[in-house]
Structure formats: structure tokens, C-alpha cells
Design brief:
Number of helices: 3
Strand order of the largest sheet: 2-3-1-4
Radius of gyration: 20 Å
Strand content: 15-25%
Largest sheet: 4 strands, antiparallel
Distance between the termini: 61 Å
Structural class: alpha+beta
């Protein structure tokens, strides 16, 4: 019977563990999201993000998570219907204040998204 040295077995175990950790974000997939930037090119702040989430709360559109990414606000939703309802609610409440882009965002738990927050 052929035996391997212990260091090789440990090396394989460590490489496999690293591969699993690096692959975890792919397990969660992507979710519908909106990326908002201000029309006047000013950066989003927590207060302006709160104004957007208040618009969505008033329109009964639930936001799964939101975070600031550079000078943009990213809003993540559970499904595409909520994404489109949020876009329409923001356009109706603030017609010329925000540039809105439909996109996808990581659907991982709140800890893995940068500055993940719940409204």
C-alpha cells in the first residue's frame, strides 16, 4: 500500500478549504438591484440614502439591503417586480433628482456586501 507524507495531506486539505471559502459568494448568486447616482453628481450621504429609502417605504416597496458604493447608492431587492416598482416609485417621487440603473448585486448575507445596511 502506498502512503503519502502528512504534509501533503495537510496541503491538500488547506487548498480545498481555501477553494471552498473563495467559492462561497457564488453559492448565493445575484439579486435584482438599483444603482442610483445623483443627477447633480454630488455623492450620496446617509441622509440622502435615508430619503430614498423613505420614498420606498412610503410606496410599500421592501428593500432587502442598501449600501453606499463610492458616490452611488445600491439598493438590493428580493425579485425583479420589486426592483421595477422601486424604480417607478423613485421616478415618480423625485423625477429629476436621480439617475437610476437596473443591475444585479450579490445576494449574500449582509456581512459580505460593503457597508451593508438595512433601512
Amino acid at each position: 500500500m502506498h502512503t503519502y507524507p502528512a504534509w501533503r495531506l495537510w496541503l491538500v486539505a488547506v487548498v480545498m478549504l481555501a477553494a471552498v471559502v473563495l467559492a462561497l459568494p457564488n453559492v448565493f448568486g445575484e439579486a435584482p438591484a438599483l444603482q442610483l447616482s445623483r443627477d447633480d453628481r454630488a455623492a450620496f450621504t446617509d441622509e440622502s440614502a435615508g430619503a430614498v429609502t423613505a420614498i420606498l417605504a412610503g410606496s410599500d416597496v421592501p428593500v432587502a439591503a442598501w449600501w453606499l458604493e463610492g458616490d452611488r447608492l445600491v439598493l438590493r431587492f428580493e425579485d425583479a417586480a420589486q426592483q421595477l416598482a422601486a424604480r417607478d416609485a423613485i421616478r415618480k417621487a423625485a423625477p429629476r433628482e436621480y439617475l437610476i440603473a437596473l443591475s444585479k448585486a450579490r445576494a449574500c448575507p449582509a456581512g459580505c456586501a460593503p457597508r451593508a445596511s438595512s433601512p
